[in-house]
UniProtKB/TrEMBL annotation:
<feature type="transmembrane region" description="Helical">
    <location>
        <begin position="237"/>
        <end position="258"/>
    </location>
</feature>
<feature type="transmembrane region" description="Helical">
    <location>
        <begin position="270"/>
        <end position="292"/>
    </location>
</feature>
<keyword id="KW-0408">Iron</keyword>
<dbReference type="InterPro" id="IPR006471">
    <property type="entry name" value="Formate_DH_gsu"/>
</dbReference>
<feature type="domain" description="Cytochrome b561 bacterial/Ni-hydrogenase">
    <location>
        <begin position="129"/>
        <end position="307"/>
    </location>
</feature>
<keyword id="KW-1133">Transmembrane helix</keyword>
<keyword id="KW-0812">Transmembrane</keyword>
<protein>
    <submittedName>
        <fullName>Formate dehydrogenase subunit gamma</fullName>
        <ecNumber>1.17.1.9</ecNumber>
    </submittedName>
</protein>
<feature type="signal peptide">
    <location>
        <begin position="1"/>
        <end position="32"/>
    </location>
</feature>
<keyword id="KW-0472">Membrane</keyword>
<keyword id="KW-0732">Signal</keyword>
<feature type="transmembrane region" description="Helical">
    <location>
        <begin position="132"/>
        <end position="157"/>
    </location>
</feature>
<keyword id="KW-0479">Metal-binding</keyword>
<feature type="transmembrane region" description="Helical">
    <location>
        <begin position="184"/>
        <end position="201"/>
    </location>
</feature>
<dbReference type="InterPro" id="IPR011577">
    <property type="entry name" value="Cyt_b561_bac/Ni-Hgenase"/>
</dbReference>
<dbReference type="InterPro" id="IPR016174">
    <property type="entry name" value="Di-haem_cyt_TM"/>
</dbReference>
<keyword id="KW-0813">Transport</keyword>
Length: 353
């Protein structure tokens, strides 16, 4: 029953993601291709080498200067070219290396090491690990993260993939929809991520045994189990990565999302670079988090899908937490019969002392 419930939750998340992706192709279906004659009528005249020298030195006249809000920026400017070079020569390759490299590492790890199975058969007794409110926020944040990652990758690489395949018209509509989705869902993701981080902060403070967890590679070095409380050291590292880099990505995204609060062009360019590097790095690490939480570790997905984990899983992965709450285990048959609501308001409270 718990496995079927878990898969049902996964399929709902996949279905929502597919619906949002389909929206990328159908947003603004009436968008027409640009009229070449109209473009020619409004295009600026050719820029001569002398004008380029004036642009770089800041000596251009009013025809090449942005006069909005008393701006003194050149419409054609050297800083914009510098930003473009950083984006194309460094950020784009970094994203491909980080995300592509992580996918290769995950594939090799799965082929060589395989899934981490439980050390003993399941006991059939369950422990409440994630209450309903935490699971609801987690899956909402996870879904938004996936949508933002896909739309962000489309904004960065889409023109090299979809433009040659579909042509300018469809590609323009797709990019317009992508930008709309990314800009509007970004702030919502930021708010919910902060709520989630605050909700699980109490489980993620560093402990002395976390260092030993890293030394033993989470249990891959040596045969003995590695001590871990409610959250192991790897989960804590992911938490603090989201609490630092994630917050920076959110803040830089807000700067880009609301350009009408006085920030200059240079600020927007730096925000774009910071946002891209942070988001690409988080996406790469998130792939590892998704792998471990699904096919990489037996029983892990059930915990976030149903709220409950088997005693054997708790002993294998979070033995210190298990020792604190093991007397609160509930037989699976009792849960199936509705003896206790699935995903109550709070996870088991550790015994004092």
């Amino acid at each position: 029953m718990f496995v079927s419930t878990a898969w049902a939750g996964l399929w709902r998340m996949v279905a929502l993601t597919l619906v949002l992706l389909v929206g990328l192709g159908v947003t603004q279906p009436a968008l027409a291709q640009a009229d070449p004659d109209r473009e020619a009528a409004t295009a600026a005249a050719g820029v001569s080498p002398d004008t380029w020298r004036q642009v770089r030195s800041g000596e251009t006249g009013p025809n090449f200067r942005d006069s909005r809000a008393d701006s003194t920026y050149n419409l054609v400017n050297a800083s914009g070219e510098t930003w473009r070079q950083w984006r194309n020569r460094w950020i784009s390759p970094f994203g491909l290396i980080a995300i592509g490299g992580m996918l290769v590492v995950i594939a090799l790890f799965y082929l060589i090491v395989g899934r981490k199975d439980l050390s003993e058969p399941r006991t059939g007794r369950k422990l409440l690990r994630w209450p309903l409110v935490v699971r609801a926020i987690h899956w909402t944040v996870a879904t938004l993260f996936i949508v933002l990652a896909l739309t962000g990758l489309n904004l960065l690489y889409g023109k090299f993939v979809f433009r040659p395949l579909f042509g300018d018209g469809i590609w323009a509509a797709m990019m317009s929809g992508t930008k709309l989705i990314h800009n509007y869902l970004g702030p919502l993701f930021g708010i919910l991520l902060i709520v989630l981080l605050a909700r699980v902060l109490k489980h993620n403070w560093p402990k002395r045994h976390d260092l030993e967890w890293f030394k033993k590679g989470g249990g891959m070095v040596g045969k003995a189990h590695v001590d871990a409380g409610f959250a192991n050291a790897g989960e804590k590292a992911w938490f603090w990565l989201l609490a630092t880099v994630g917050i920076v990505v959110i803040a830089s995204g807000v700067v880009l999302d609301f350009p009408n609060y006085g920030q200059g062009r240079d600020t927007m360019q730096w925000a774009n670079i910071i946002h891209a590097v942070g988001a690409l790095g988080l996406t790469a690490v998130a792939l590892g988090h998704i792998y471990i939480g699904t096919i990489g570790s037996e029983g892990s997905f059930e915990g976030m899908a149903t709220g409950y984990v088997d005693e054997t899983w708790a002993r294998d992965h979070h033995n210190l937490w298990y020792e604190e709450v093991k007397d609160q285990a509930i037989p699976e048959e009792r849960l199936a019969a509705g003896g206790q609501p699935s995903g109550g308001s709070e996870a088991p409270t550790p015994r004092s002392g």
